[in-house]
Each structure stands twice: as structure tokens, then as C-alpha cells.
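> call design_seq(struct)
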């Protein structure tokens, strides 16, 4: 199922005086030749004017187009200027003997190796990342020279379900998605370039990555363990993501499964569920779309990415989500789509 928002040949035909009806018949015939006999729907419009459709209200497996639903809900609830914050808190009063690394759900948190992997991938190039090394630098700038008590990690913002039950196990082995958590670096991969090998605990892996960056700056760091900050803990340093509008655009362009799952759990937190869960995020996403005037009949959202084979959405719902991108605050829904030969998953294609 694929949404069409533009059809250059049709636009050229319209400028030559061809009527919508004639152009629609030609397009419909072409789509029938392409998709005839398959389980598919389509809906094509131009600036809100319907051109042609086929079973537009039939809910089918949306695959990665479901990311538009997740992205729209995140923008509607959190706002395009929202930023994710990862914080290092003192474990006590006075000079810290240890730190608590608190995850804020940043899908772009990355080590230098992860940032290089994004920059070197034509499908992900340009997607925003948040440098964990900047957090290490800011910690050093506060005067910290040793952390004998080490680093405790706190990812309690989201639940500890790393993979959606509806996903085939093969997705983990084939690089489709890494483990999801509120404190995760490099998309949950030990090898972010090849998207292979995942840590058993993404929060611990994040704490270990921060420890290595601090040690590279000459700061001695003790063990990395799980734990929470004591009451009244002060903030030592933070690092923030790019604005949500840029994060969403990057997730859509590169079809980032892991990032979409993080967004859905953040939608749940914003709606009042703590820790954030996929199920609560899906309920809140549906309510956000309905309030925005999007029809949600037949939609089934088991995840944020569309990896679940029992996800369902109709072409009409997807077209209405795309139309939300006409609103200034929601422009990322259109601006973030992949462009053939230029950006995202279509950069090396056509």
C-alpha cells in the first residue's frame, strides 16, 4: 500500500489541458496493470482533489507507511519543537562520586561510531543524531575527574519490552530493528554500520559507552550498574536532541523502525502512561488522529514501525494523515518523505 501525493506526469498533462477524468482513467488503468490481482488499495489526489482510488476504505497491511501514523501522533501530541533530553545526575550532594544516566527516549542518541554509520549510509545520511560525546565533554567541563562509584543507568521512562511480540524473531537477526528502551545508543546495535549484534541490556550498553567516552578524557569511572537517582539529585549535565520536526523527518526518510518505536512509547508517556508502552502509545495515537479529523476506521496498530504483520490501515487514513502535512506545525510529515535519487530510502534508487 503506497500513498501518492504527487504525480509529475499528471501535472504535466493537466498543464496541457487534459481533464482530471481522462487522466484519472489512464492512471487507474496503469495501477491496475501494476497491482492487478494483488491485495492492494490505492488513493491518489492532487491538493485535496481526488483523482482515482481503489478500495480506499479497506484496511490492509500498511508496512512502513504506518510510520506516518506514528509520526503524525508524535507531532500532534508533543509539538514540532519538542526535544528529547538525556541527563547525567549526581548520585549525592557535593562532588559526585558517581553519576546516574537518565534516558529521555532520544531515538538519535549515538556514539561517534554510530554517527559515522549514519553519515556513511546513503539511506540515513542527514538524519539527526545526538552526540553522547557532547554529554561526556559537558560532564568533564563541570570539573569531574573521577567517578569511583561508577555510573548507574535509569531507563524507567519506558517499559522493558524490547521487541514487540507480534514481530517475527528473524527481524532481530536481519538488522530490521534493535532493542527498544528509553536509554539506547546507536539504535540498539553494537555494530551500528552493519546493524548486527545487539546488547542484552541497551541501557547498560549506553552507560558503558558513556564510561568509555569519559575515560578517553582521562576520567576514571567505576562499574556500570542499574539504579535510580536519589531524591533531590542535581543535574550535572544534559544533552538534547534536534527538534522533533527534524527527528520525525529523519525517521520517515530512512524508514527507521527503531526510531518509530521510540516515538510511539513517548506518545504514551505524554498521554499519561509511565512507563510508556507500545499499547498505550497506539491508543493515544488513535485519539490524537481522531481529534485532528483523521478517520481511523479499521486501523490496527500493534507497533510504531509497521513491522507487525497484523497491522492494518486504509489508503484513506494514510491520505488524510498526509494532508495533515499541509499544516505548518506538521510539515515534517511531507518534508520528511524519501525522494527518489535524493533522500532517504529512495536516495540510491531510480
Amino acid at each position: 500500500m503506497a500513498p501518492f501525493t504527487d504525480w509529475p506526469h499528471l501535472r504535466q498533462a493537466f498543464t496541457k489541458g487534459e481533464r482530471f477524468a481522462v487522466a484519472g482513467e489512464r492512471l487507474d488503468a496503469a495501477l491496475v496493470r501494476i497491482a492487478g490481482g494483488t491485495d492492494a488499495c490505492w488513493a491518489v489526489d492532487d491538493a485535496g482533489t481526488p483523482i482515482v482510488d481503489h478500495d480506499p476504505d479497506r484496511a490492509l497491511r500498511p508496512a512502513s507507511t504506518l510510520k506516518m501514523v506514528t509520526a503524525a501522533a508524535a507531532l500532534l501530541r508533543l509539538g514540532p519543537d519538542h526535544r528529547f533530553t538525556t541527563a547525567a545526575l549526581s548520585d549525592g550532594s557535593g562532588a559526585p562520586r558517581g553519576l546516574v544516566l537518565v534516558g529521555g527516549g532520544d531515538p538519535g542518541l549515538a556514539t561517534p561510531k554510530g554517527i559515522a554509520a549514519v553519515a556513511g549510509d546513503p539511506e540515513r545520511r542527514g538524519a539527526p543524531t545526538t552526540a553522547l560525546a557532547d554529554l561526556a565533554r559537558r560532564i568533564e567541563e563541570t570539573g569531574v575527574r573521577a567517578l569511583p562509584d561508577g555510573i548507574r543507568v535509569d531507563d524507567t521512562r519506558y517499559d522493558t519490552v524490547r521487541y514487540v511480540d507480534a514481530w517475527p524473531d528473524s527481524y532481530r537477526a536481519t538488522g530490521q530493528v534493535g532493542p527498544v528502551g528509553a536509554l539506547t545508543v546507536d539504535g540498539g546495535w553494537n555494530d551500528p554500520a552493519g546493524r548486527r549484534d545487539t546488547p542484552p541490556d541497551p541501557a547498560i550498553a549506553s552507560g558503558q559507552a558513556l564510561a568509555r567516552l569519559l575515560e578517553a578524557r582521562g576520567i576514571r569511572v567505576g562499574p556500570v550498574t542499574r539504579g535510580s537517582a536519589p531524591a533531590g539529585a542535581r543535574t550535572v549535565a544534559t544533552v538534547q536532541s534536534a527538534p522533533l520536526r527534524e527527528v520525525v523527518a529523519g525517521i520517515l526518510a530512512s524508514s527507521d523502525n527503531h526510531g518509530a518505536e521510540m516515538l510511539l512509547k513517548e506518545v504514551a508517556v505524554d498521554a499519561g502512561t509511565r512507563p510508556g508502552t507500545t499499547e498505550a502509545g497506539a491508543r493515544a495515537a488513535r485519539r490524537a488522529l481522531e481529534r485532528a479529523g483523521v478517520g481511523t476506521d479499521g486501523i490496527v496498530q500493534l507497533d510504531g514501525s509497521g513491522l507487525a504483520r497484523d497491522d492494518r490501515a486504509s489508503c484513506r487514513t494514510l491520505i488524510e494523515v498526509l494532508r495533515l502535512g499541509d499544516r505548518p506545525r506538521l510539515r515534517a510529515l511531507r518534508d520528511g518523505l524519501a525522494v527518489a535519487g535524493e533522500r532517504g530510502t529512495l536516495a540510491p534508487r531510480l
